[in-house]
Every structure is written in structure tokens, then in C-alpha cells.
Amino acid sequence: MAGTPTKQLETFANPQLARDYTIRMQIPEFTCLCPRTGQPDFATLDLEYVPDRLCVELKSLKLYIWSFRDRGAFHEAVTNEIADHLDATLRPRFLRISARFNVRGGIYTTVVVERRQESWQPPLPVSLP
């Protein structure tokens, strides 16, 4: 097997420290277990962040996400846990994670969590004709 689930996130140095830029990742195969029923919950995670000194290494992110597969967790708790861990590891200028969970009992749930450095200000949006 190419690897096993892990809670360890690996990083590498941001190659463009002086520039704000956004990294966006879509993770369509997130799974965890419903803490009440033990049934699997499926979600697509949309991760976007403006790195400061560090960027997350993709294989370690994949193995980290895999580590939730057999854990019971409420949608809100697991989304905040992932955001907290990424924020603590990367200390990005800005981070947003949106967890779009598949339908359960006729209800779709989306949980959005944001973190930002106190001094960071987003650039003004550009509107082109």
C-alpha cells in the first residue's frame, strides 16, 4: 500500500513569500462516520488558503484526510478540527475550508470555517469589463 492514514501534515517553504496568492484544493472523497449511527458520511472538502511561510504537501494531506475514515464525528466538529490543524501547521495568511456533506435524512449540510492572521488584509477585487 502506498501509505497509511496519519495525522501528520508535511509542509514545504512558500516559493513566493512576498506575494499573496491563493491555493485551492478540492477533496471529493472525504469520509467519516456518523457518531450516532456509525453510518458513513461523505463530503467534498473545498480548501483554499493564502500561504505565509509554509504550504501543505499534497500526499501528506491525502493521508491526513484518510485518517478520518473510521472516526465518528459531527460535521461541524470535523470541519473545525481540520481547519484548526491546518491553521496550526501552516499559519497561513488566510484559510477557508468548506465541507459539503452528501444528503443525510433529506438534508444537505455545508460547514464553512475561516481563519486569518490579524494583520492580513485581502487585496481589493479586480473587476474587468
Overview of this protein structure:
With 129 residues, this protein is α+β, with helices and mostly antiparallel strands. It has one domain (23-116): GTP Cyclohydrolase I, domain 2. The protein has 2 helices and 6 strands; from the N terminus they run ββββααββ. It has helices at 58-66, 75-90; strands at residues 11-13, 23-33, 40-50, 54-56, 94-104, 107-116. The strands form 2 sheets. Strands 2-3-5-6 form a 4-stranded antiparallel β-sheet, covered by helices on one side. Strands 1-4 form a two-stranded antiparallel ribbon. A hairpin with a 2-residue loop joins β5 (94-104) and β6. It is globular and about 45 Å long. The mean pLDDT is 95.
How many helices does DSSP assign?
Answer: 2
Give the mean pLDDT. Answer: 95
Helical amount among residues, as a percent range?
10-25%
CATH topology: GTP Cyclohydrolase I, domain 2
- Write the element-wise H/E pattern from the N-terminal end onward: EEEEHHEE
Radius of gyration: 16 Å
Strand composition percent:
35-45%
Strands across the major sheet, in which order? Answer: 2-3-5-6
Structural category is alpha+beta
Biggest sheet record: 4 strands, antiparallel
Q: How many individual β-strands?
A: 6
Tell me briefly what this model is.
The protein is α+β, with helices and mostly antiparallel strands.
